[in-house]
TrEMBL record:
Signal peptide positions (record): 1-28
Bilayer-spanning residue ranges: 52-72, 81-100, 106-127, 139-157, 169-189, 201-220, 226-249, 269-294, 300-324, 336-355, 361-378, 407-424, 444-464
MF terms (GO), sorted A to Z: transmembrane transporter activity
Protein name: EmrB/QacA subfamily drug resistance transporter
Keyword Signal attached: yes
Membrane topology summary: Multi-pass membrane protein
Domain of life from the UniProt record: Bacteria
Length: 499
């Protein structure tokens, strides 16, 4: 092997290591935070309802930034923007760990949302331009595996660290790993950019996404205390509508729009995006509700570590079904795979509707496994269909739409589930029910919402009926990886690179 080949091989391994390690850390951090909420609540003296914004705020900022960060990488250099994401992630971890008030934690998490979405978007793009063909498929598969492992292990790691080092330990360790990725990236990754992409960045579109989403989530989160017909709620909803209308207008007139609205005429893409929206929402809302129920003294009273361990059957089921999803979708068609997936999810959530204080943890295991398999089965084909349904030169825009749908679905579903659960819990408490009965009723109400979302997903097959699975490509493998993370590449093949 020549010196040049050895150098190229080392550089390729450096790109792969930097992208995969950072994806693992970001996804582990994302899934671990809900386990940490009770401990953070006790430490900073804020309610869990307030700290819900540490979850929804992260996703809201991620939704606004993920497409923009990919565009910034295309224009100004993917390595440069990826490094900026890593540095911002380190700083956000430090801010959160050093915070003694809820405001600092929430602000840090919102900054972390921008950093995490930047790392995921540009990390995948670095892999997609560094290799081609079989090598690209292997790299994307490894990236997807790292993302899945991080997402699955996050609650367990978070619980272990809460019990051993305090909740701050997760963020200090994440900061150290991300910091180590900085010199690795700088020394081994070549700069790359897209010379054909317009240099304009749709800043206005990014801001209008936030204007549309933040008031909507605020209205959902506070409606139980404000009242649905109160002035603050109506004002937030009106501002959200104005932001949405403004976004549509801005995108129609932008030179390089954040979202190509003409793609929304593609009914397969719309159906796949809605499925992704629902699945991401249900996964995040479920983790939020279960984490609080499992650790509440009137629920199971688990420690953070025990709550993390309690999520393993669901995570293991979702990972186990992953290798079977593509063969099944090819055999029976993605529309039927998605329908079966949502049907299984509905069955699992419907069982949780009848939760009682007398239930033990073992009563949760079977429905959690069933609904996890269902969500995995629905998400995989939908992620693939979102890119397979468009022309090759539209893959970047289609992926941007589905990426935003993941973040938006997660933020809205967590806010809605928290509002419904809290309102029902408070109502039962007011009516004289015991704390345990009220808590179970709240979880059951949240399960009703998630059951309805699953049932709505079944009807999405009407939009997917014309889609036919195609032979796997690197882009489609990336879409499968997106089922466990938040992004797929903005460009499917190599472009100009340089030091």
């Amino acid at each position: 092997m020549t010196a040049t080949n050895q150098t190229n091989r080392a550089a390729g391994l450096g790109v792969l290591l930097a992208a995969c390690v950072s994806a693992l850390v970001v996804n582990a951090n994302t899934s671990a935070v809900t386990i940490l909420l009770p401990a953070i609540s006790q430490d900073v003296g804020a309610s869990v309802d307030t700290l819900q914004w540490a979850v929804t705020g992260y996703m809201l900022v991620g939704a606004a930034v993920i497409v923009t960060s990919g565009a910034l990488g295309d224009v100004f250099g993917r390595r440069r923007i990826f490094l900026a994401g890593l540095v911002l992630f380190v700083l956000s971890c430090a801010l959160i760990a050093l915070s003694s008030a809820a405001g600092g934690v929430i602000a840090g998490r919102m900054i972390q949302g921008a950093a995490g979405s930047t790392i995921l978007a540009c990390g995948m793009s670095l892999l997609s331009v560094d290799s081609a063909g079989t090598g690209q498929m292997k790299a994307i598969t490894l990236w997807g595996a790292a993302s899945a492992i991080g997402g699955a292990a996050g609650p367990l790691i978070g619980g272990l660290l809460v019990d051993s080092t305090g909740w701050q330990g997760l963020f200090w360790i994440d900061a150290a790993i991300a910091a180590a990725c900085v010199p690795l990236t700088y020394l081994t990754v070549k700069e790359s950019r897209d010379p054909d992409r317009p240099r304009e960045i749709d800043v206005l579109g990014t801001l209008l996404v936030a204007v549309a989403l933040v008031p909507l989530v605020l209205a959902l989160s506070e409606s139980s205390s404000w009242g649905w017909l109160s002035f603050p709620t109506i004002a937030c909803l009106a501002l959200s509508v104005l932001g949405g209308v403004g976004f549509v207008y801005a995108e129609r007139h932008a030179t390089a729009p954040l979202v190509d609205l003409t793609l929304l005429r593609n009914r397969v893409l719309v159906g796949a995006t809605l499925a992704i929206f629902l699945v991401a929402g249900m996964i995040n809302a479920l983790m939020y509700l279960l984490s609080l129920y499992f650790q509440n003294p009137d629920g199971f009273g688990m420690t953070a570590l025990q709550a993390g361990l309690a999520t393993l059957p669901a995570a293991a089921a979702m990972i186990a079904i992953t290798p079977l999803i593509t063969p099944l979708a090819v055999k029976i068609g993605p529309r039927y795979a998605v329908a079966i997936g949502f049907g299984l999810a509905a069955a699992g959530f419907a069982t949780l509707m009848f939760v009682e204080p007398s239930w033990t943890y073992s009563a949760f295991v079977a429905p959690l496994i069933v609904l996890s398999i269902g969500l995995g089965l629905a998400n995989g084909p939908a992620s693939s269909a979102s890119t397979a349904a468009v022309d090759q030169d539209q893959v970047g825009q289609a992926s941007g739409i589905s990426n935003m749908a993941r973040y938006v679905g997660g933020s809205l579903a967590v806010a809605a589930a928290a509002t419904v659960s809290t309102a029902v819990t408070d109502a039962h408490t007011t009516d004289g029910a015991s704390a345990a009965e009220s808590l179970s009723a709240g979880l059951g109400a949240g399960a009703v919402l998630l059951t309805l979302m699953s049932a709505a997903g079944i009807f999405l097959v009407l939009l997917l009926r014309r889609h036919r699975p195609e032979p796997a490509t690197a882009v489609h493998l990336a879409a499968a990886a997106a089922a466990t993370s938040h992004t797929i590449p903005t460009r499917p093949s190599g472009e100009r690179t340089g030091q």
